[in-house]
Hints:
alpha/beta
Amino acid sequence: MGRKVSIGVLVSGNGSNLQSLIDRIDQGALDADIKLVISNNPNAFSIERCRKHGIPFFVLDHRLFGSRVLFDCRMIELLTAAGVELVLMAGFMRILSEEFFKAFPLRIMNIHPALLPAFPGTHVQKKALDYGVKFSGCTVHFADEGVDSGPIILQAVVPVLDDDDEESLSARILKEEHRIYPLAVQYYAEGRIEVEGRKVRIRNSTLTN
Ligand code: GRF
């Protein structure tokens, strides 16, 4: 087991990925402390999850801020004050500004429900179905200033079945998200992630993803 990494989680909605992090920590399989959860959506179910598990959270309604940068600066203040080292975007539906990336260089991860670089952006399970791909999956990557474009840490593949709809494919992908996101964070906690340009290597990995 590695040292405990202090994480901050950014959410906008249901928070099933947040839940998977909470559960792995509770099981002793993830050396992390959730120092703070920030939701930009006052009605996100994620907030209920925080209440239930006694996790500190802050609702920061982006609509009350004059600009994206002001909103991001407030997030930086809160995360820094909470001692957050690694920021995890988990269904966070906001684009981050340059200021935010400067505050947490290579210390922001995102989970995306497609095999990047295919299908960046939103509604990607539907886009994958409409395109007719036979496999899709999910990607954990370091976030950068592009849309879903940073260095890829882990990916998991799922089949696309003939009778899939958006819901069934999303559920199959989500199951893998809940597996690989905590795993990527654990690799980070163990200091095993090496980044060289776009390439990410996991030191001493016995896994093939
Ligand atoms: C997930 O599919 C994630 O990949 C995407 O948004 C969804 C969030 O789900 N970025 P949840 O809020 O974690 O349940």
